[in-house]
């Protein structure tokens, strides 16, 4: 429909028919400009977070979304191809900034024991938008020559909603205390977030992180790239982002309809299955929310990559033998749906979440910007390159993604540490032990369910404390101060659990 719009506008303005070559060029620019905007937004997201804060940055970003939605939806009214292209650029810019700011903001306001669940919410929002766009884009709703401007204008709605609702939320306490030194405002923000006035333990944990990362405060992207101490977490963050974009998920989402048609399914049925792909992703993202802080990021990422690896093999086999065995068309559908299920469990949300967790407050914005740039640029390359790869490899077009999945699974197994139930300082301490990538260490901390909103004192990791003497001193002081204040509501194991219980009071 949009290609017809472009051809009609060109003919009305020039009096000439649009050639196939020029049509392909304009359409390629229209599609690609979104990814370019995302890359630019990703680069600038960290600087915006440092300049005006996470909350303020998100609020300002809504102006870009409103501008982009207005330009796209009015392109038919003004008969302007330029408005359509420029609008997609601004929407891409908005999305790039959002992908940098949202995971950062959520990870900083969440209690340690809920950080994984709340971090998954950002991916949930993306999936909801994907499913809604698929439904609204049906020919019976807005997917028509008259309805497409309204479909593109829908992007206006979430921006307005955020402008109305986000002012009710507090700024990130970590940004206020560590980045700006505004202790009173940070304490008030924490009290609102925790619904309690007892937030001194969280304040002390932030101060501990601030003392430990003084040498890394306010680093630029180039300084992070050159830093030997931050080299390992940066490599992990980059590879995690690559594991999302090079997994093949974009090929499934963008080309699933044509893939199902090639497998022998009718076009109408293929469109229904495509919506089913988005619905399955939405359901599994919801399922993964409570699992994130129970199973752990590393474990779920391994399950996700492993499952996608197996499903990609089945998908390739079904495409190869679909003319021999007629039922293989439905094997390809099941394989694609299974691929999406495992993506939602692991690589869908974990790369964004773990990138924000791997860095302390100072280098976090710049590190997230680097990771966001890698994610958007890789997605841009995959989006442009997959049609060519499909023509060259035909039924074997998914095998490169299968190879990448095997590589990323191996890297995650050997190099990515578990971050669940650890404070930001404890995670950073893992990389300060030596100059090598830390091997996986199981975090066996057991946290009482009724203490789930305590962020620092609920976790006890002896190996991390041995590498951070100031944390050990803090633990000992807290134990001495409050030893006689604990109550006997529950029975805990002597030694470790006694200290955890005393510091939780």
From TrEMBL:
Keyword flag Transmembrane helix: yes
Similarity field: Belongs to the major facilitator superfamily. Sugar transporter (TC 2.A.1.1) family.
This protein's record includes keyword Acetylation: no
SUPFAM superfamilies in the cross-refs: MFS general substrate transporter
One CC-aspect GO term: membrane
Membrane-crossing segments per the record: 25-47, 84-106, 118-142, 148-166, 234-257, 269-291, 303-325, 331-354, 366-386, 398-416
UniProt keyword list: Membrane, Sugar transport, Transmembrane, Transmembrane helix, Transport
Membrane topology classification: Multi-pass membrane protein
Species: Dinothrombium tinctorium
Gene Ontology MF: a single term: hexose transmembrane transporter activity
Major facilitator superfamily (MFS) profile domain ranges (all copies): 1-420
Subcellular location: Membrane
Protein name per the record: Glucose transporter type 1-like protein
The organism's place on the tree of life at top rank: Eukaryota
PANTHER family with a match to the protein in the record: GLUCOSE TRANSPORTER TYPE 1 (PTHR23503:SF128), SOLUTE CARRIER FAMILY 2 (PTHR23503)
Location (main, coarse): membrane
């Amino acid at each position: 429909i949009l290609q017809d719009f472009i051809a009609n506008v060109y003919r009305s303005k020039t009096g000439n028919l649009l050639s196939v070559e020029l049509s392909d060029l304009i359409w390629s620019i229209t599609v690609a400009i979104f990814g370019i905007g995302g890359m630019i937004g990703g680069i600038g997201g960290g600087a915006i977070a440092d300049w005006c804060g996470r909350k303020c940055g998100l609020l300002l970003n809504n102006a870009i979304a409103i501008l982009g939605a207005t330009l796209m939806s009015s392109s038919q009214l003004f008969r302007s191809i330029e408005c359509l292209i420029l609008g997609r650029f601004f929407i891409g810019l908005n999305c790039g900034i959002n992908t940098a700011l949202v995971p950062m903001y959520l990870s900083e306001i969440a209690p340690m024991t809920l950080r994984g669940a709340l971090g998954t919410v950002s991916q949930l929002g993306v999936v909801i938008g994907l499913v809604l766009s698929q439904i609204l884009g049906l020919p019976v709703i807005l997917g028509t020559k008259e309805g497409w401007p309204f479909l593109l204008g829908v992007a206006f709605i979430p921006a307005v909603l955020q402008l109305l609702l986000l002012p009710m939320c507090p700024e990130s306490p970590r940004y206020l205390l560590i980045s700006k030194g505004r202790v009173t405002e940070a304490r008030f923000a924490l009290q609102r977030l925790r619904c309690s006035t007892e937030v001194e333990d969280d304040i002390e944990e932030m101060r501990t992180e601030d003392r430990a990362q003084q040498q890394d405060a306010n680093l630029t992207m180039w300084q992070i790239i050159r830093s030997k101490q931050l080299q390992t977490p940066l490599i992990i963050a980059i590879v995690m982002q690559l594991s999302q974009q090079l997994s093949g998920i974009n090929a499934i989402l963008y080309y699933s309809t044509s893939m199902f048609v090639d497998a022998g399914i009718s076009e109408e049925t293929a469109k229904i299955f495509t919506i089913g792909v988005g619905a399955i992703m939405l359901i599994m993202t919801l399922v993964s929310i409570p699992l994130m802080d129970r199973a752990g990021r590393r474990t779920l990422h391994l399950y996700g990559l492993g499952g996608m690896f197996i499903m990609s093999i089945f998908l390739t086999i079904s495409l190869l033998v679909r003319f021999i065995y007629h039922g293989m068309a439905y094997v390809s559908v099941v394989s694609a749906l299974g691929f999406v299920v495992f993506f939602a469990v692991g690589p869908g949300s974990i790369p964004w979440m773990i990138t924000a967790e791997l860095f302390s407050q100072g280098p976090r914005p710049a590190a997230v910007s680097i990771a966001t740039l890698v994610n958007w640029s890789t997605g841009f390359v995959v989006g442009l390159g997959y049609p060519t790869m499909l023509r060259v490899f035909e039924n074997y077009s998914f095998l490169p993604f299968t190879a990448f999945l095997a590589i990323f699974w191996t890297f995650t197994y050997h190099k990515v540490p578990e971050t669940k139930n650890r404070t930001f300082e404890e995670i950073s301490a893992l990389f300060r032990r030596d100059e090598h990538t830390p091997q996986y260490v199981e975090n066996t901390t057991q946290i009482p369910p009724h203490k789930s909103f305590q962020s620092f004192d609920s976790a006890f990791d002896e190996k991390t404390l041995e590498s951070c003497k100031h944390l050990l001193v803090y633990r000992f002081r807290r134990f001495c101060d409050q030893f006689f204040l604990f109550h006997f509501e529950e029975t805990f194991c002597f030694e470790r659990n006694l200290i955890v219980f005393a510091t939780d009071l």
